[in-house]
């Protein structure tokens, strides 16, 4: 059973049309970042991959970024896009032996 995080507007941008027919009351599936530009909500959480995150950063649709850095080494070739240093600051929100959580926000 899939559930989104509570008290947040969750959006999945996907090319997979089969997902549009599934019933998820707490997740919206859309086909384009352009649809998201018209949504008026202050707490939109975007669920996607590196390409989607980069599109949102480039389109200047992001004012906060929540990142959790897991203290482990994994093989992989896809990474979160580089966050521009200009006009962005960050707070180290929480650290445990398993992870460090960061909040990036626009100045």
Calculate Rg over CA atoms.
Answer: 15 Å
Strand order of the largest sheet: 2-1-3
Distance between the termini: 38 Å
The helix/strand order is EEHEHEEE
Spans where pLDDT lies below 50 across 5 or more residues = none
- Dominant shape: globular
Largest sheet: 3 strands, parallel
Structural class: mainly beta
Could you give the topology of this structure?
Elements: E1 9-13, E2 27-30, H1 33-37, E3 44-47, H2 50-58, E4 64-70, E5 88-95, E6 99-106
Parallel strand pairs: 1-2, 1-3
Antiparallel strand pairs: 4-6, 5-6
Describe this structure in a few short sentences.
This protein is mainly beta and 107 residues long.
Could you explain how this protein is built, in words?
This protein has 107 residues and is mainly β. Helices cover 13% and strands 34% of the residues. The chain contains two helices and six strands. The protein has helices at 33-37, 50-58; strands at 9-13, 27-30, 44-47, 64-70, 88-95, 99-106. It has a three-stranded parallel beta sheet with strand order 2-1-3. It has a three-stranded antiparallel beta sheet with strand order 4-6-5, with no helix packed on it.
């Amino acid at each position: 059973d899939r559930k989104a995080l509570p008290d947040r507007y969750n959006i999945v941008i996907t090319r997979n049309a089969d997902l549009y027919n599934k019933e998820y009351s707490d997740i919206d599936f859309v086909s384009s970042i352009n649809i998201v530009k018209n949504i008026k909500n202050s707490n939109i959480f975007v669920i996607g991959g590196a390409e989607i995150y980069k599109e949102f950063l480039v389109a200047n649709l992001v004012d906060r970024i929540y990142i959790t850095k897991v203290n482990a080494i994994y093989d992989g070739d896809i990474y979160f896009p580089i966050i521009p240093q200009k006009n962005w600051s960050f707070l180290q929100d929480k650290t445990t032996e398993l992870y460090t959580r960061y909040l990036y926000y626009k100045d």
